[in-house]
């Protein structure tokens, strides 16, 4: 590539990536704050049910992503890539900002979770149209035989968006007192997005349309009915189904296991301090993100198939050993309590509410705090546990999450190039968006809620290794996808439409 061409593609990459990263930030800030949100927008008398309801609302945004892919994909193939994902950017930003403005459940009752659900659905629709447009836009600017490398920069945006969401939350927590953050500070990360969206809109406004699409439009070869040509054509539908069941379905569950389920698992199953989890996950993501670029580049050299399938196979084989090691790392049964440092304090609030705080310290520096809340009119008490882990355990968990992020980079780094190469220009936006968002939105997005339910059910049944039951969902889905992908995907660039 010449210096001018390189400069041009970097301009495209930076403009596309920044907008996509901000949309992922907006989308994932909800998941990053799920534990806090469960106490704000849902009834507080049953914390477990409130958290599961929050995860279900989080998942709702994923479920509607395929509909966003169909709606905005059609627009993208008819009117162009640029204006379509400018619209998705504004829709996402507005919805995120408004979530931060909704009064709590205590103030407006059931209207609070209803409004959150509606805005969450709008977020899902917006993201359904964003990713396909950004990936297509970059791929149509990139030179031949370098699609994997250049589109892999778009692949980093989802993880970078999650990383920035964690950093904004940590910064807000450090600036505000715990009381202020719990009261109103948790809204700040939602409000910050409106500034980021404004900047990204101004950048995207000055972008040119994709040269490949502009040429097709000038020649009159764009599609008049992308939905019919994408899914009504049996030949093209075959590639849509192959993309879904042979690649994106497995990629989706590996992505959400390695990042969101890992975060949820450490916070709710292992009971680690939320700020510590955000920190260690942020470090693991920082170390792992460059591998998106590496595996995207490598896929240009050796093909997409074996890298993606290899990531799935490694995840299938190592998820259970990894999560068993994670759980045992902080399992208090393996630690020695300093009995003389154990304290129990009881305080009475509002006459009918008694809070008992039990604090324990262990020889390796781990601390344990349990708060039991008893109400005079209720037979059962509510209990919450927070464990602060020592630095050695923290680095162990960083390494174990980093390994999972490597699996993510293998399946996710090459997949944008893989998808755009499957479909012709005139229906590319529509055809690639649907399988991507069904695989990620349905199979991947439902993972935190389904896996958390499995763990909760297994724990209630008294299983010793209850914490591993949530992994059966991603393992089974990834296994089916691995078999289909190995049998039916050609390791070469499938149709060379680019």
From TrEMBL:
Q: What is the lineage of its organism?
A: Bacteria, Pseudomonadati, Bacteroidota, Flavobacteriia, Flavobacteriales
> Domain Major facilitator superfamily (MFS) profile spans what residues?
12-493
Q: Which PROSITE patterns match?
A: MFS (PS50850), SUGAR_TRANSPORT_2 (PS00217)
Transmembrane segment boundaries: 24-43, 49-72, 84-105, 111-129, 150-172, 184-203, 239-260, 280-299, 306-323, 397-422, 434-456, 471-489
User: Where does this protein reside within or beyond the cell?
Assistant: Cell membrane
Keyword hit for Ribonucleoprotein? no
Cytoplasm found in the keyword field: no
Tell me, in one coarse class, where this protein mainly resides: membrane
This chain's protein is named MHS family MFS transporter
* Topology in the lipid bilayer: Multi-pass membrane protein
Matching Pfam families:
Sugar_tr
CDD domains the UniProt entry points to: MFS_ShiA_like
Task: Keywords in alphabetical order, please.
Answer: Cell membrane, Membrane, Transmembrane, Transmembrane helix, Transport
């Amino acid at each position: 590539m010449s210096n001018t061409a390189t400069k041009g593609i970097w301009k495209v990459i930076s403009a596309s990536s920044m907008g996509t990263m901000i949309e992922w930030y907006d989308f994932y800030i909800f998941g990053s704050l799920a534990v806090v949100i469960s106490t704000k927008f849902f009834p507080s008398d049953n914390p477990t049910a409130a958290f599961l309801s929050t995860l279900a609302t989080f998942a709702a945004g994923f479920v509607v992503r395929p509909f966003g892919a169909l709606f905005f994909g059609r627009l993208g193939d008819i009117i162009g890539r640029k204006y379509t994902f400018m619209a998705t950017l504004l829709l996402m930003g507005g919805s995120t900002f408004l979530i931060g403005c909704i009064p709590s459940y205590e103030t407006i009752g059931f209207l609070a979770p209803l409004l959150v659900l509606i805005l969450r659905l709008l977020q899902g629709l917006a993201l359904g149209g964003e990713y396909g447009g950004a990936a297509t836009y970059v791929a149509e600017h990139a030179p031949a035989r370098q699609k994997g490398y250049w589109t892999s920069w778009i692949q980093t945006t989802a993880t970078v968006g999650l990383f920035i969401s964690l950093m904004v939350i940590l910064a807000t927590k450090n600036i505000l007192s715990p009381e202020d953050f719990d009261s109103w500070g948790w809204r700040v990360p939602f409000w910050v997005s409106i500034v980021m969206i404004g900047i990204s809109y101004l950048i995207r406004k000055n972008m040119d349309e994709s040269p490949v699409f502009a040429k097709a439009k000038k020649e009159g070869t764009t599609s008049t009915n992308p939905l019919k040509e994408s899914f009504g054509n049996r030949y093209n539908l075959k590639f849509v189904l192959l993309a879904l069941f042979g690649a994106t379905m497995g990629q989706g569950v590996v992505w959400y296991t390695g990042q969101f389920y890992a975060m949820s698992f450490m916070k709710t199953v292992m009971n680690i301090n939320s700020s510590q989890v955000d920190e260690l996950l942020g470090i693991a993501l920082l170390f792992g993100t460059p591998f998106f670029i590496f595996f995207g580049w490598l896929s240009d050299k050796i093909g997409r198939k074996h890298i993606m399938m290899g990531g799935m196979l490694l995840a299938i084989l190592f998820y259970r050993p990894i999560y068993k090691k994670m759980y045992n790392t902080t399992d208090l049964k393996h630690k020695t309590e300093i009995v003389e440092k154990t304290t129990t304090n009881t305080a009475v609030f509002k006459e009918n509410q008694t809070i008992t705080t039990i604090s324990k310290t262990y020889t390796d520096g781990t601390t344990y705090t349990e708060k039991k809340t008893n109400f005079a009119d209720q037979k059962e008490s509510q209990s919450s546990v927070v464990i602060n882990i020592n630095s050695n355990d923290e680095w162990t968990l960083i390494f174990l999450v980093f390994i999972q992020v490597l699996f993510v980079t293998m399946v996710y780094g090459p997949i944008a190039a893989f998808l755009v190469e499957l479909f012709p220009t005139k229906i590319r936006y529509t055809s690639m968006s649907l399988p991507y968002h069904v695989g990620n939105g349905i199979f991947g997005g439902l993972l935190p809620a389904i896996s958390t339910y499995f763990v909760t059910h297994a724990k209630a049944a008294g299983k010793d290794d209850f914490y591993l039951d949530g992994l059966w969902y991603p393992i089974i889905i990834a296994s089916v996808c691995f078999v289909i992908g190995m049998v039916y995907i050609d390791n070469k660039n499938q149709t060379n439409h680019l």
